[in-house]
Amino acid sequence: MIRARTTTARIHPRCVAGMALIGFGARNIADALIVHWLMGLHRIRPTAEVPILWDIGWLAAFGLHPLLVASRCATPPPPTRRIPARPAKPSD
């Protein structure tokens, strides 16, 4: 039923870091939008004069910023260009 894979895919560490940042940022954006603003269950700092500013700051720092960093990390670096070796000169 289940066949073993004959090849293993190599994932670049930058891609793994980018995917982790995407998950972290997306979770914080969803939390800010759904729990904080739509449902109004809690605030980041409810005792502040303007608690929405703390919510927006949290969204920017822990939601949008990780997504921006992830956009640079999630793609693997371009492959290095290899210069082909010169063929050896035939000896006489």
Could you walk me through the main structural features you see in this protein, from its secondary elements to its overall organization?
By secondary structure, the protein is mainly α. The chain has helices spanning 13-38, 51-73. It has a domain at 13-73. The protein starts with 12 loop residues before the first helix and ends in a 19-residue tail after the last helix. The relative contact order is 0.18. InterPro entries: DUF2243_membrane (IPR018719). This is DUF2243 domain-containing protein. Pfam families: DUF2243 (PF10002).
* DSSP E strands, number: 0
Question: What are the low-pLDDT stretches, counting only 5+ consecutive residues below 50?
Answer: none
The helix count comes to: 2
Distance between the amino and carboxyl termini? 61 Å
Largest sheet: none
Gyration radius from CA atoms, angstroms: 24 Å
Helix percent reads: 40-55%
Please provide the ordered H/E string of secondary-structure elements: HH
3D shape: elongated
Calculate the mean pLDDT score and round it.
82
Organism: Paragemmobacter aquarius
Protein name: DUF2243 domain-containing protein
InterPro entries: DUF2243_membrane
